[in-house]
Amino acid sequence: MAFRSIRLFGDPILRMPAEPVTEFGDRLRAVVTDLLDTVDAPGHAGVAAPQIGVGVRAFSYNVDGEIGYVVNPEVVELSEQQQDGPEGCLSVPGLGFDTRRARHAVVRGVDVDNDPVTVSGSGLLARCLQHETDHLDGVVYLQRLAPERRKEAFRQVREQDWFWR
Nearest Cα to 57, choosing from 115, 5, 108, 122? Predict the structure, then answer.
């Protein structure tokens, strides 16, 4: 289908929980195709449907050559072991902040035919799975930062030319 433009932090769709997919057909296939086309661009590790303006529970990922998608994803396992590291977001361009995430994550959902899908990963893939599922819950990673760091991050966001005023 097409590479879709990314909605930026401040857009209300990024704060709303996405609706579960209940109809599996051509419309869903088109959204998933757009998610896959959009995540295939350089520097894109993951794209959630709300980031392209579609309020449904679906995301695509592209980490270390592994490209895929999940519809109606749910995080079913997070390791107790944590990782701290830089995290960015296509909806918050040009900024990145160290964010604590589980080192390993497992997500279960379905594909466009409503067949079961499980994706598990460690390191960057685990970070991506958690980050994209957060988007579907209306959470942008900045909200996961420690209070003082979050305050500084929001200040930096407000200074960006792209920020909605």
Answer: 108
Q: Choose, from 66, 80, 87, 132, the residue flagged as catalytic.
A: 132
Q: Is the pLDDT of residue 1 over 60?
A: no
Quick check: is 132 catalytic?
Answer: yes
pLDDT exceeding 70 applies to what percent of the chain? 98
Domain ranges across the chain: 12-158
Q: What is the pTM of this model?
A: 0.94
> Which residues contribute to the annotated binding site?
89, 131, 135
Q: In the CATH scheme, what is the homologous superfamily, with its name and number, of domain 12-158?
A: Peptide deformylase (3.90.45.10)
What torsion do the CA atoms of 35, 123, 131, 154 make, to the nearest 10 degrees?
-120
Q: Nearest-CA neighbor of 76 among 129, 112, 124, 32?
A: 129
The CB density around residue 143, as the number of other CB atoms within 10 Å, is: 12
Alpha-carbon gap, residue 73 to 58, rounded angstroms:
7
Which residues belong to the annotated binding site for Fe cation? 89, 131, 135
Q: Is 85 helix (H, G, I), strand (E, B) or coil?
A: strand
